[in-house]
Design goal:
By secondary structure, the chain is of the alpha+beta class. It folds into 3 domains: 211 residues, FAD/NAD(P)-binding domain; 151 residues, 2-Layer Sandwich (D-Amino Acid Oxidase, Chain A, domain 2); 100 residues, Glutaredoxin. Helices cover 32% and strands 28% of the residues. The protein is built from 14 helices and 26 strands. The strands form 6 sheets. Strands 6-5-12-13-14-11-15-18 form an 8-stranded mixed beta sheet, sandwiched between helices. A hairpin with a 5-residue loop joins β13 and β14. α1 packs parallel to α5. The longest helix is centred in the middle third of the chain and has 25 residues. Pfam families: FAD_binding_3. Its cofactor is FAD.
Length: 510
């Protein structure tokens, strides 16, 4: 039994990896030891950058239609709304999706599974990886099926998307340094009423335990996420909603009618020492885990999958050397480390104890945040960071050149001029060139000879406002990040980029 890539774990990270690869003609086998997809979930937020990238998989509209757009964040102190941060107004000029999308992970997984099945790929359930080894240019894995029978499975690569307790990570002996938060997290999906059930995100700053109300699709539906640290945390498995609900009812004025689901869990903050060893790769929670602050976890795992998928496809179809796969860790591990550090600082601030911490949370933050939100640069930075628009591969092995404030490795700035949206061509899962203004004829001819799609946009003021520069060559990677910028728009620069890295545009395997 053989596939190009064996994917272990069918959460969002593994499913997106399987979808991307299958769309590019790569043969995948995806297994999960669970009997069925999750019916409950912790991950909720789908950030703007993920929605942008999902256009390549034709998933964006389905996620938006099936979820709920969160337009603003509200901070509460002493039972009253103390500050409101409007997300929509901040991101309107930056992305087609200037909001945080609430789309529960269980529904998210079902959508991904449905799209995979349409392509003829079925997740092999109740199938567990028991071990693997690397042999003569391939991976030989042992899989135990639902009947307990073990079979060998051969693959060119194995992708560990198998969560915080990853057997793939354990098998390659990869360290997973970090720690565990002492707080116990709880999640409750409820049917409720009250002023904090208005479709926006509400966070209570009164106490050193985190508490937030996230809106869900449907009237009066919400998810409560909070922490407890006192003696109740010592018996997390025995906690019930009644043990933690008083604060939400009192401080955020939540009138709970029905509790649909309640769960408790511990959270870690860890990053694997490496994301690759030989033919084994780590993605998502197998590679990095952190606090839920900012709703970054699932989005980061999906970003891992999209970054690695086109590189797998390039190598497996002979469009790139094996060394291209080294750029996965080079590009993703730095971001994961910064993310863990940032979310840890935010969570530590929100949950810090003591009089000074209380004053900072309940008095200074509600006063300061609205003022910061009125400063264009500050609020744009805040939105870009949370939405993951700032994720960049500057300085990476595939990034070259700059023009103005935009560098190789950055996300392409979004702009709409008249009826033309420059993200329209980004549904293409391949390399492409953008020129805003006029493309030299030699460049047109070079793109044709290389098999590179070339998009030329008539120069408009909107492109300049977005940060793009006239007549510059922008080479976009298959994951839509900018690979190369040449201010002179010369065909020789483009040709040298591909030749020096031994790269070719993607050619579907089948």
């Amino acid at each position: 039994m053989r596939s190009d890539v064996l994917i272990v774990g069918a959460g969002p990270t593994g499913l997106v990896l399987a979808l991307w690869l299958t769309r590019l003609g790569i043969k995948v086998h995806i297994v999960d030891k669970a009997a069925e997809p999750g019916t409950s979930s912790r991950a909720l937020a789908v950030q703007a950058r993920t929605l942008e990238l999902y256009r390549q998989l034709d998933l964006t509209d389905a996620v938006i239609e099936g979820g709920h757009q969160i337009p603003a964040v509200n901070l509460w102190v002493k039972g009253e709304r103390a500050a409101r941060l409007p997300i929509e107004a901040i991101g309107a000029d930056l992305t087609p999706y200037p909001f945080m999308q609430a789309f529960p992970q269980d529904r998210h997984e079902r959508l991904l599974i449905d799209r995979l099945e349409r392509l003829g790929i079925t997740v092999q359930r109740q199938t567990e990886l028991t071990g693997f080894s690397e042999q003569d240019g391939h991976v030989l894995a042992r899989l135990r099926g639902p009947d307990g029978h073990e079979q060998n499975w051969e693959a060119s690569y194995i992708a560990g998307c198998d969560g915080a307790r990853s057997l793939v990570r354990e098998t390659i002996g990869m360290g997973f340094p970090g720690g565990t938060y002492r707080q116990v997290f709880y999640v409750a999906d409820v049917q409720a009423a009250g002023p904090s059930l208005d479709g926006e995100l509400h966070i209570d700053l009164d106490e050193a335990d985190f508490l937030a109300v996230f809106p869900l699709a449907g009237t009066g539906r919400a998810r409560l996420i909070g922490t407890v640290r006192d003696e109740r945390a010592e018996h997390a498995e025995d906690l019930k909603f009644e043990d933690v609900s008083e604060r939400a009812i009192k401080h955020l004025k939540v009138q709970v009618d029905t509790v649909h689901w309640f769960s408790t869990y511990h959270v870690h903050h860890r990053v694997a020492e490496h994301f690759r060893m030989g033919r084994a790769f780590l993605l998502g929670d197998a590679a990095h885990i952190h606090s839920p602050a900012g709703g970054q976890g699932m989005n980061t795992g999906i970003g891992d999958a999209i970054n690695l998928a086109w590189k797998f496809a390039s190598v497996l179809t002979g469009c790139a050397p094996e060394s291209l796969l080294d750029s996965y860790e080079a590009e993703r591990i730095g971001f994961a480390r910064r993310l863990v550090s940032t979310t840890d600082r935010v969570f530590s601030f929100v949950t810090a104890e003591g009089r000074i911490a209380d004053i900072m949370r309940t008095r200074i933050t509600p006063l300061l945040l609205p003022k910061v939100a009125r400063v264009d640069v500050a609020r744009e930075f805040l939105f870009r960071t949370v939405s993951q628009l700032t994720v960049s591969y500057r300085g990476g092995p595939l990034s070259q050149g700059s023009a103005g404030h935009v560098h190789g490795g950055d996300r392409l700035p979004w702009a709409v001029a008249g009826y033309e949206d420059n993200f329209g061509s980004l549904t293409l899962m391949n390399w492409q060139v953008h020129v805003y203004g006029t493309a030299r004829q030699e460049l047109v001819d070079c793109c044709k000879s290389l098999g590179l799609p070339l998009q030329v946009f008539d120069w408009q003021a909107e492109y300049e406002a977005a940060g793009l520069t006239q007549n510059v060559l922008y080479l976009l990677r298959p994951d839509t990040y900018i690979a190369l910028i040449d201010p002179a728009g010369m065909w020789e620069t483009l040709d040298r980029y591909f030749v020096s890295r031994q790269l070719k545009p993607l050619m579907p395997a089948h």
